[in-house]
Amino acid sequence: MSDKPITDNANYDPLDGRAPLIIGGHDFHSLTEATSKPLESKATTAWKIIFSISLCGLALYLGLIGWLVWKGTGVWGLNNPVAWGWAIINFVFWVGIGHAGTLISAVLYLFRQKWRTSINRSAEAMTVFAVVCALSFPGIHVGRLWNAYFLFPFPNQMDLWPNFRSPLLWDVFAVGIYGLTSLLFWYVGLIPDLATIRDRATTRGRQIAYGIFSLGWRGSFRHWWNYEKAYMCLAGLATPLVLSVHSIVSFDFAVSNLPGWHTTIFPPYFVAGAVFSGFAMVITLMVIVHKAFGMENIITMRHFENMSKIILLTGTIVGYAYGMEFFIAWYSGSEYEAFAFYNRASGPYAWGYWIMISCNVLSPQIFWFKKCRTNLVVLFIVSIFVNIGMWFERFVIVITSLHRDFLPSSWDYFSPTWVDIGMLIGSFGLFMTLFCLFCRYLPVVATSEVKAVLPQADPHYDEKGGH
Amino acid sequence: MIEKNKMTEWRSLETRDPDAELSAELLNEFPEGAAEESLTTTSRREFMGVMGAGMAVGAGMMSGCVRKPVEHIYPYSNRPEHTIPGRPKYFATSIPVGGVVSGFLIESHDGRPTKLEGNPDHPTSLGAASAQAQASVLDLYDPERATTPSTSGVESTLADVDTLLAGIAAKAVGNKGEGLALLVESRPSPTYERLLGVVKSTYPMAAIYRDDATERVNARAGMALMGLTGLPFLHVDQATTILAIDSDFIGYEGEAVVNARHFADGRRVVKPGDSMNRLYVIEPTFSITGAMADHRQRCASSDVGGFVSSLVAALAKHGVTVDLDVAALATQKVRDFDEKWIADLAGDLAGATGQSLVVIGERHPAVLHAAVAVINDALGGTGKTVSYLAESGVTEAGTLSDLVSGMNASKVDTLVVLGGNPVYTATGDLDVKTAMAKVATTIVVSSYAKDETAAVATWHVAASHYLESWGDWTASDGTVSVQQPLIAPIFKTRSELEILSALLGKSATSHELVVETWEDRLSGKTWRKALHDGVAVAAKRAPAGTLASAGLNKALAGLKTPTAVSATNLEVNFVLDTKLVDGRNANNGWLQELPDSMTKLTWDNAALMNVKTAGRLGINKTPKRSGVKTYDMVEVSVAGRSVKLAAFISPGLADDTIFLNLGYGRTNGDIATGAGVAVNVLRTQAASAFAGGATVKTVSGRYPLASTQDHWFMGPDPDESPLFAELGERPLVREITQDDYEKHPDAIDHMGVHTPHQENLWPDVQDYSKGQQWGMTIDLNSCTGCNACAIACQSENNISIVRKERVLKGREMHWIRMDRYYRGEPDNPTAVFQPMACVHCENAPCEAVCPVGATAHSPDGMNDMVYNRCVGTRYCSNNCPYKVRRFNYFAYNRDETVTSVNPFLADDEKLSEIQKMQKNPDVTIRFRGVMEKCTYCVQRVNQAKIEAKVTGDGVVKDGDIVPACQQTCPAGAIVFGDQNDPTSRVSILKKQARDYEVLGELNNRARTTYLARLRNPNPAIEKRSPSSHGGDHGEAVAAAHVGDAGHGTHAVDQHTEEKHD
């Protein structure tokens, strides 16, 4: 092994051992410097521009929510057969986005996948923000949102409970618990890094602010001991949630009797789709983040390649599910079911279906080629395609199933209004606002965890003839 | 704090006189033990204390935030006689609706008439009422009704009107009425005719003109050709074989309400093998009568004469000699018909001597009405299936055309228009507006000051609604009823009778005038009985005499041969709208928003044409979408005049004919304005019903039409995608021939999807085998799709209208959706109706998914909506396979006072004080954000249950609960009752082999089931063209639709399927 720092860990010869996760010859100090820099330097113009645009999106979102509350649900394009529209599509879309974060931080942690460390912080942040976006939709989607609290089981003078048979109620619990667990998990992981930032703080304000949130972390053995235990426990708790949340979200559809919704394949198919879309979003964000903050050596091509492999896998699972839906629609012998799928692929919304197929099934196939897996431009474009495709998947499921169901006399067509479109854009504004703030005020890389996967962290590092 | 909040009104003893302990608790924000107490074990009283304490604190904080209008409720000091608070009263009255006099019962809540129902004792109602009649109540509360008289747009007073009319009367007395002209509508009313007679005798020089689109001018003239003064009256119940020649006699024409009942009575098959009447229809349009036909043929309006000639010839071959100048009639024939079809029809008619009936539509000329009368006579129908009843006392009057020439010749100096709107309704060759300008004083009596005619008049007198004034009416069978008002005039209005009286120099009230007519015949008890029963004189009209066809043959000799309708000689048909008639109902929101039975169009008329005609004219078969559906525009020109309107393809119309509905394009109010296009300009006095030689060309521009149901697509085209051919087959509407039903009574059951074993995901909420359990049947064999139920439901249940822009988005609120399915070739389909409302599933999919339990089952098996629990997730609607739930996307009932102060709410539907008066107080007004749907009229169910509890053993007797839809159904197709009682009507119907559940395979266990439709085709015609419908084991009108390339549905013949245990 030469002294020259390794700069390419994606095309690393396996005969030389495992490819290093962090390249560019980072040591503990340089790593801290690199990850703390975005917090401690002045905001760049690029950040300011992106943040301003995001804030505009957020303002649009809040404004439209106000308009919705003021005028009524009719400001959306909903109609009689299509009683759920973009709000539900956006909800499922954002919940799905969140999944990659939990998968990376919890499942990959339990499986000791060390490459997760460079991306888990951002992915978890993405999860929390995506859940915030997601949760905003069911709340505003109801017709009388000032009564939305009826959905919670609270003691009341009428001894009235919510209907525990309703999947929407399961949703309330599933997504609520998921959001809470994700937030806790993210925060616990942040504590050591927050303490680092606190210790490096040069202003009183930062010292106090980070001081409060680092909960008096001093890095003692006991702290680390408790921290590792807590982290492990939360990872254990979060892991089943990866499967349960989107399964339960899928129950909103699967438990109904609507052709196109009423299918047993939905839980695994939704989970795979969620992981698929989540990883696409992680790639989208990481491509920007690692370039913007000069972290190419920390978030490396190897990370991207690993993620693109997961996209290829989950994209193919999703493709299988699409095919299987059609097979079952035919095999079931139910003409309503068969028609629902015929209508998806050839009805008035066929364009949506084929956008979904092209983006979700066809575009990831390019990742069979290593050249594509390790090309940032390709990665970025495909990740955007997958994001679009997964939004359309929910569009296809929600809209095309509803607009033509059992009785042809009730059939109609759904067209979104400017409020529908504005709210989708606005939810991205909310997400990006939170993410921009995160990039500015919190370490985007889990520095302490990355340090643990540096070669120098190996107790036998020196014996191997390092520096 | 308590002292300060001491209330003068109180709701319960606790709040009025709080005891010391409670007062202490109220003052304590956190009472001791509040946290520890389990709510489930807390007594109600303790709980109220705890909550009250919290509320008292909350109220202090909230009082500044919540704005609620101040309301005062005062009790009666002395209870008016027969008034029980909360219980409506019913009064009988009578009124012509769409030109047909019928008797009604009006429901009145605390002096506010809210709903109209048919009067079961009245022979032209039999308890039923049409959609138009049901909707007429809304006119009383139209906020745009004229509220005061006005002169040249300036508000005036009734005193001024009295002075004006007194002046006219004084002048007329002097000059015997010279220069005075009255334009009246058809008013078959003894008092009205009496007053007109007095006008005529007092002012011999005064001229009376009559113009009314609903008047049966052609039928009357046809009778005159036969030497009779009178009109034909149908006895559909006596007929077994009926031929309707462009006559919507069970839909919207003439005595359709009773005809529909009698027609349905002839089709109530109880068991396989029961006999049924048979209906043949030949028509240019596709009427709902045509949809009920066993055999239907299309022909252009100008070919109808030719058809009659062919029929006469065919009847002669079957030994029925028709006393007609056949040769002269034959000149009408320009096109060959399916002579075999006519021969079979003639054979059938001839074979049912004395029980056959031929009906012809009012649109056709007098000579054909006379010819049909001769045919009926030859078939032995006179006096059996049709009677000719003498009319007496119809004041002779000139026509509108006479009036216009009189005005143009400056022979009129004072014109009084009593009802009617000639500036709008006049044909294109009569310029009423210019003519009226030449008249010094024009007085228009109508409901809207913005009426086209009122706008050009010097005076407008606001007319009283029929519920505000007295009158009397003679029904077509001679029954006379008194029009009894239910409310004093709300505004400064006058009734037509009062105006007539004032013109005679008197100022009698309508009550005095009616009493004056009747005082020598009815007084005291008999008068009160007449008012109570709604029938004053039950005497039948005398027969009009015997038919003499001499006059007819003379008229026949003068007939000219029409030009054949073809692609180069298009025929334009002008038809009275089934909702707006000639425009008189244009400002009625219920009717504007009611989907037309066949086209499902709301808020508009259009140039209707069939696929072939549209193809030739280069019109796109499918609308384009840009948010909403937009349609091609066409310019229809006849004789140099033209109108532009949207083209709409409606299957089943005759080739090369265009249909234009009258009554649209009015401007008399907010509802009417913008709805459709006025087409009267294309009509002429000579061709007011249909005109040949029309040209139609597409013009630029597109127009959105709000049709609530799509045509065409129900599944893949079987030719284009044979692999998917079965996907369009849905056994929703089931139909079978009577013959097949006799041979295979279980065939209807076999049309459905068979599922071997059905299990519930959740256990039943309760034991449905116990107690009274409500259910409903709808007989598709009698349902004509007339929409009466839809408006009855709207009226009973306070259902909002949502306006065209929201219907375009698919947000209409009707609880009853009249599903219309076509089957067969696109240009010659048959049609079936299926009223679809909440079917009240026992295993309701909506209930399981509502997260807050806002839709739940009642112990008597109804699926209830709890509006104040509903948060509006709309999940129930998604999970409803029938899609019968309706969501309040906006506030459709917002208080006008709130909207006026808030510009952001300006486009909400406002509810003014006067509109609120129409609302049924027994039914909640739904707020924005809640779901609603058919409740089986739960308010009526509960009222009957309370009644049964108070007066008996609590068991409601069969027939004591009548939902609004069943109550008004002219055909008697809807039956509601206790399905656990084996003797109830509904259980007996449900036991029939034709009873089936729509989507029964989903295991919803719907309480509303349908009785399959039976067709009774002529075996001779059937044998010749068996391909016109499915196999010999009956067929499912599965995907009863018109496929893209003209493929109808195919039988889902599952007869061979094995039986499951």
Can you offer a commentary on this structure?
Chain A has helices spanning 28-40, 45-71, 86-110, 120-141, 167-200, 204-213, 221-254, 266-292, 301-331, 335-346, 350-362, 370-373, 376-403, 418-441, 447-453. Chain A is mostly helical. By secondary structure, chain B is an alpha/beta fold. Chain B has a 7-stranded mixed β-sheet with strand order 5-4-16-15-14-6-7, with helices on both faces. In chain B, strands 19, 21, 22, 23, 24, 25 and 26 form a 7-stranded mixed β-sheet that branches. In chain B, strands 11-10-9-12 form a 4-stranded parallel β-sheet. Chain B is globular, with a radius of gyration of 31 Å. At the A-B interface, helix 5 and helix 10 of A face strand 30, helix 28, helix 29 and strand 34 of B.
Helix-strand blueprint:
The complex is a heterodimer of chains A (467) and B (1061).
Chain A: H1 28-40, H2 45-71, H3 86-110, H4 120-141, H5 167-200, H6 204-213, H7 221-254, H8 266-292, H9 301-331, H10 335-346, H11 350-362, H12 370-373, H13 376-403, H14 418-441, H15 447-453
Chain B: H1 13-16, H2 20-27, H3 44-62, E1 89-97, E2 100-109, E3 112-118, H4 131-140, E4 150-151, E5 154-155, H5 158-175, E6 180-184, H6 190-202, E7 207-210, H7 217-225, E8 230-234, E9 241-245, H8 256-265, E10 278-283, H9 288-292, E11 295-298, H10 304-317, H11 326-330, H12 339-351, E12 356-360, H13 366-378, E13 386-390, H14 400-408, E14 414-418, H15 422-425, H16 432-437, E15 441-446, H17 452-455, E16 459-462, E17 471-474, E18 480-483, H18 496-503, H19 510-518, H20 524-533, H21 550-557, E19 570-575, H22 589-593, E20 601-602, E21 607-609, H23 611-617, E22 624-626, E23 628-638, E24 641-649, E25 657-661, E26 690-704, E27 706-707, E28 733-737, H24 738-743, H25 747-751, E29 774-779, H26 788-796, H27 804-808, E30 817-823, E31 830-836, H28 845-849, E32 855-857, E33 863-865, H29 875-879, E34 886-887, E35 894-895, H30 896-901, E36 910-911, H31 913-916, E37 931-932, H32 938-951, H33 964-968, E38 974-978, H34 985-990, E39 995-996, E40 1008-1011, E41 1013-1015, H35 1019-1024, E42 1035-1037
Parallel strand pairs in B: 6-7, 6-14, 9-10, 9-12, 10-11, 14-15, 15-16, 19-25, 21-24, 28-41, 29-40, 35-36
Antiparallel strand pairs in B: 1-2, 2-3, 4-5, 4-16, 8-13, 17-18, 19-26, 20-27, 22-23, 23-24, 23-26, 28-42, 29-38, 30-31, 32-33, 34-37, 39-40
